[in-house]
Amino acid sequence: MMHGSKKLRVLTVAVGATSLLGSAAASAQADGAHGHRGHGTHAKNVILFIGDGMGDSEITIARNYLKGANGRLAMDSLPMTGAYTTYSVDKDGTINYVTDSAASGTGWATGTKTYNGAISVDRNDRDLPTILELAQRRGFVTGDVTTAELTDATPAVLASHVAERGCQGPANMASCPQDAKENGGPGSIAEQLLDHGVDVLLGGGQGRFAQTVTGGKYAGRTVSQQASAQGYTLVDDAQGLAAATAKQKVLGLFSAGTMPTRWTGPTAQPYTADDAANTTADGTECQPGNAPSGQPSLTQMTSKALSLLDTKAKAAKGKRGFFLQVEGASIDKQDHASNPCAQIGETADFDSAIAEGLRYAKQHPDTLVVVTADHAHTSQIVEYPQDAGHHSPGTFQTLRTADGAPMVISYATVTAGKSQDHTGSEVRIAAKGPQSQRVLGVTNQTDLFRTMAIALGLK
Question: Rounded to whole angstroms, how far apart are CA atoms 267 and 377?
Fold first, then answer.
């Protein structure tokens, strides 16, 4: 991987990638789409919500359970709704129809397709400028919020560049030794997030930040100690987060790894003889209230991030606002685990965070809000098994929804007991605010980068 010197980082665009702002023809078409020219102004703020693994099926499952078939979630209220494709490319340029979170995140963060596992580098391992980096250069304040580890792929793509997503902390550099600071590289994802000076970093991952830095100015200290030296206030619970102010940058680490899911319930199971006998299964209910006491919810983290960034932007007394990304990470992780209740609970928490973002945007109409996913996933709504010859080949679970009706959820991309796979379907993208008309129709995941760059006036 070619990083150049420590003082000058190589920032390039992959061969075949379109320009930062896209073609004039595409821009003109988007500006005029459905007559929504009134949205063609610049945004002061951008709030990007990423539901990891939140395909249309995951949205429908959550809506049915939480609100009923005719109900609506907060994410359903955004006026401009389209779909985008999510494929990645292998290092030889071959299309890969099923992306991972690293390649998909790189797509919207940089506007360039790359290979699965890559964090904001192109398929030749050259660093790509991200939407957050470009926003910082123009004076915007920035935030990155997730329920995963802060070093996980989706939050990582905004402010780090490594050839392998697993290089999360100084002790995790075996698969990308060229990126280690002692070898002249930019360091692990954790170190890079801090070196980029992101104003608000909230999520899990205490274990990565407890690792010892092995090269550079902060060698011998933990990454958390590096954060303190770089002007961060460190918080580790809801009380500390509530007390944090915008006078310093804020690093909130609320769990050792991924933050625990907020709901529990029965996991999906393979078909058995009992299922054949029970042809009128009524379904079960999920149990909220699983999160540890004192740990902030995604909604609380989002609300605090908005407050901190708004205050910090106003204190700068400039025309710039902020860029904030918020990830509901464990929709994906619980889809992998065939756990419908935990999956729905994470979607509910994510939707509540979206509602918080929309409340802010209502008071600040110069804010672009985008809600989308990085890729589709496994879960499907299917019929209850009729007999031994007519049932899900994977696993399933029946839940009783807000309608009082049973809903059967199936997981069958791999055999029972294995981690379920992503799928290659297009996913929803919805938006409200300046330039929101650009999400209409069917677009590419990389087009989201251009939408945000144009909205923020990043030329």
Answer: 16
